[in-house]
Design a protein that fits this description.
single chain, about 80 residues, alpha+beta, Arc Repressor Mutant, subunit A, three-stranded antiparallel sheet, 4 helices, 3 strands, HTH_17, Helix-turn-helix domain-containing protein
Length: about 80
Amino acid sequence: MQIEIITKEDLNEFKKELLEEVRKLLSSGTILQSEYLKSWEVCKLLKISPGILQTLRKTRKLPYKKIGGSIFYSKIDIGQMLKL
């Protein structure tokens, strides 16, 4: 097993690279949340009630991510569910 030592300089360089990538994403107009919808947006898009959306979650027909207290749905997952 080979041990690799990471220095403060390595971490600072990584931080600079990461921040630069985030800046590029934000400046290009790509918003990370644009790929995901909140519950109310899904209800409006699919013209369903919050109760139906909850049933889709519980039956695992529509995958979701819970971040903090908010639930997000991938636009790709919604599209795949509609194709079934």
